[in-house]
Amino acid sequence: MIACPLICGSNVKTPYFDRLQRRGHEAVYFCRDRGSGLRALIAFHDTTLGPAAGGTRRWAYADEEEALQDVLRLSEGMTLKCSAAGLNNGGGKIVMLAEPGAAPRREQYRALGRFIDRFQGHFVTGEDVGTGDEQLRWISQTTRWVVGLPAAGMDKPETSAQTALGVRLGMKACLRRVVGKDDLEGVRVAVQGLGHVGMKLARALAREGARLVVSEVDPGKAQEAAGQLGAEVIEPQEIYRTDCDVFAPCALGGVLNSRTVESLRCRVVAGSANNQLGQDGDAERLHERQIAYLPDFVINAGGAIDNLAMLDPQGYDADRVEEQIRKIPDRIERLLDISLEHGISTQKAALHMARERLETARQARKETS
Ligand code: PHE
Questions:
Q1: Looking at residue 367, what is its pLDDT?
Q2: pLDDT at 194 over 60
Q3: Comparing 64-73, 115-124, 148-157, which segment has the lowest mean pLDDT?
Q4: Are strands 52-59 and 27-32 parallel, antiparallel or unpaired?
């Protein structure tokens, strides 16, 4: 058989349009800027609920195929996240292809902003892995369609703190159900990754009496958690088999896969990372092992809720944001109920919940058009 000439890199043989169709994507833009050397992919997954929203990830991908796969999966995750959280936005995501070890460059982010600006508000971006406040400021020099930078004098919690809040509340709701415990006193939580969200989550958990085990590639951050929070630091690959009540993936995606799920020794998986499951079937593996997996796109929605509240024409309302984040534990409880009642994985239950709202919106749109 002759390989499809369209496909580069790894051994994927499916043509591009089939791949868009299979997961429901609307468009992927390949963006390059001659002057700065920017190479970026902008994906629109499903904009039934509103303009596409999603962070900008900057990463040294092995090849273009890996970058494309990432942007496709992440943008789909954003559709599900917005839908499940009751937000009126669609799913989008941007990945910037970086050279290994290269520092982020202002000119590339400014060029990216010019691309985003062409969509005139149909795409809004924000923070993600590799893109922090400074990079958001660079994007904001060429487009206003960027969220996450508080306006001067605006007093609001950091977005990462809001994500951590949702994760902690969801985790507690689940522990109440699964182990009948109302607080975190003595609960052993294994936190993978001490980035913006992971560190804040670890701090909040420690304040409530949790015993922490952490893994982190940056030794400075690991030491900080050990010194300030009394965390036990373990090697990155050990985090999957450490004995704990809760495993909290707060680093990159794909960590729950055929290899790791078998080795987990926890009751609950509740973390902030996007795309925690390697493949859909991994949710079933967790279900079979009776590990309560709290679907990432439901539990980590605090950041998206907070970010998108900045677009509110009436202005950012901190109380309303908190009210929305406090609905995350209710949603988690509902998913656990459905999972128990119907004998399906929490992931399946969550997909059903998110897709139902999309379908209703799609029908309503058809009727009015
Ligand atoms: N990247 C973050 C997320 O995955 C935050 C974000 C949400 C950024 C919405 C922009 C828009 O949720």
A1: 81
A2: yes
A3: 148-157
A4: unpaired
Q: What residue owns the CA closest to ligand 1's atom 11?
A: 54
Give the Cα separation of 194 and 198 in Å (integer).
Answer: 4
Question: 3-class DSSP state for residue 92?
Answer: strand
Kindly give the distance from the C-alpha atom of residue 77 to the centroid of ligand 1, in angstroms, as a whole number. Answer: 10
Asked whether residue 301 carries a pLDDT value surpassing 80, the answer given is yes
337 is written with which tokens?
């109920």
At 362 the pLDDT is 94
Name the nearest CA neighbour of 364 among 85, 48, 46.
Answer: 48
Cα 91 to ligand 1 centroid, rounded to whole Å: 10
pLDDT at residue 156 in the model = 86
Q: Distance from CA of residue 240 to its chain's centroid?
A: 20
- Parallel, antiparallel or unpaired: strands 27-32 and 39-44: antiparallel
Give yes or no for residue 83 having a pLDDT over 90: yes
Name the residue with the closest Cα to ligand 1, atom 7: 304
Mean pLDDT of 135-153: 92
Q: What is the mean pLDDT of residues 237-248?
A: 97
Per the CB < 8 A criterion, the answer to whether 166 and 94 are in contact is: no
The span from the CA of 179 to the CA of 267, in Å, is: 9
Distance (Å, whole) CA 2 – CA 103: 40
Burial (CB < 10 A; 0-12, 13-18, 19+), residue 114, is middle
Closest CA to 239 of 248, 229, 226: 248
Which atom of ligand 1 lies nearest, measured to the CA of 56? 1
Which of 128, 162, 276 is the best mutation target for the ligand 1 pocket, counting ligand atoms within 8 Å of the beta carbon and taking the most?
128
For the Cβ of 249 lying below 6 angstroms from any atom of ligand 1, the answer is no
Structure confidence at residue 12 (pLDDT) = 57
Instruction: Evaluate: CB of 113 within 6 angstroms of ligand 1.
Output: no
The 8-class DSSP code of residue 150 comes to P
81 CA: nearest ligand 1 atom: 12
Share of the chain above pLDDT 90, in %: 90
Give residue 289 CA to ligand 1 midpoint distance, Å: 31
- DSSP H stretches of helix in 13-90: 16-23, 64-84
Amino acid at position 258, single letter: S
Residue 78 CA to ligand 1 center (angstroms) comes to 8
